[in-house]
User: Fold this.
Amino acid sequence: MTLTGGGRIGGMAFTVVDGWTVPGFTHERELSGGASGRVVLAVDDLTSTKVAIKYFGGRQADEAFRARFRALSRPLSQLEDPNVVDLYDFVETAEGAAIVMERVEGVALRRILAAQGPTGPLAALSMLGGTLLGLAAGHAREIVHGALRPSNVLVDGQGNARLADFATAPAGTETAAGPAYAAPELWDGAPASAATDLYAATAVFFECLTGRPPFAGRNMAKLHREGPIPAEEVPGPLRGLITQGLAKDPDERPKSAADFLGALEDAAVSAYGPSWEAQGRGRLTELAAQAAAQPEPKPRPARGSGRNPIVAAAGAAPKAGGGRGRWIAVAAAVVVVGVVAAGVLLLGKDGESAAPDPTPAQSSTPQPSLPAGGVDPAPLVASIDQSTARAGGARFTYRRTGAGGPAAGRGGFTLVQGGPASYSMSLSGAGGTRKAAQAVVVRDVVYLRAGKRWRQAPAGGRGYPALAEQIRLGSSVPAMTALLRSATALRRSGDVYQGEAPPARLAQDPGSGPLYAEMARATGATKISFAVRMDGGLPVKLWVRAQDAAKKRTQILSVSYSGWGHAAPVKAPR
Assistant:
């Protein structure tokens, strides 16, 4: 019997899938199809894990693309970041190739724009920030996305922008995959690069602000090469970002995703205040929920392969077997309806909460007075200390912008009882530390990768050792809890705690005192503002700002945490 649609047989639901299917999965329904492949939702018959599967088609199915993708398997396996989508397996047989990936509970940005139109500046900034974080993770491992566009930017239930489809565009097809987002040099035959990714991210950002891409017309190549950059169509404070990101010459664009992210944060804070990220994430969450509530568009019909269609019946596993190793990478754009709006702190430009003050938290040990805002920091500090100690370590992303120069770090750390955490990271800064380097910090020694060898230097020494120690200190759990303990103002909204602390009090902290003393010295600040976001009892975001009264010098630290309890142990290299 040949089936050409969906329905029920003997009370059992089925979905028709044209062509070869990955063994060991039951298909639920198809999301999209076309010459470049199709995406289906499925369930792992062995573990009952819900996944999405992209079947390669067109040039993705030829041997040249497969060989290239195969060669990328190792760096792709090392790509783990909260702003990318996990890929579980790359499956190849004589009949076809496919990737099995994480099933994201979220909505594609393309669908949000189609349903809601322009997102507004705060949501657009939040989207661009998440996109740049995802690109930075890939670029750090020399993995270029190649064809970034709204359909492979996913917004999850917490308003996080997550990238899919890294390295899945066959070489030479980037302009066809996303002509509205393709940099000028791609039209001239140049290969995809980090610079073309930044151009595409800026074009998507422009579309979020205006509702349309920056260039549209019949001769897209000429428009991208020669058309004037339409920066005047976006809000004034954001025009510089558009001008930089859409520069015709790739050398005039930001040097890296991390540099672009620093410029974004400076522009966002200057225009919308320190709470821009919380507000933008909240708005993006709302837009995603509204788009998800509308009827889901029907997938494009897949082109026939010439082979017999296959019926995947719910509850019936395919007969063929196959091994599946877990490869962490980034893959196709997957849309799953059902976003749940998350509670997000909405702050005004001056850092005041836009929500009413919450009921004061209760402490088992009464205090004479609580910080302004009514939140007792003691239970929160105790909870953070206990939960992070149980987890033992995490992955992190660190950024510093403003006074003192830029700095960026990314990697993992292991907590050490009675001493500073051990870190493994890639890091870069300004001047002599601008080039990215690999470092391991254990106790009071920094190990720097030099070719195939490691050289040792004392922590806090000049150059990279000093930068590594700054990053370790700024991203440490004690630096976070010192802010909470020293707070003179502390408010809570949902999972976000926002407050202020005087630098003089922070400087007395035995662990992180030097960090905050230096922030105050570099800026002249008389107070330090901060926000901490929690998830399941563990911190996932720390934001710190020091700014002088005249708002002439500012330093901002931003730290993201993920994978608590799953980071690899850090040991001194041999």
In short: The longest strand covers residues 393-402. The longest helix spans residues 121-139.
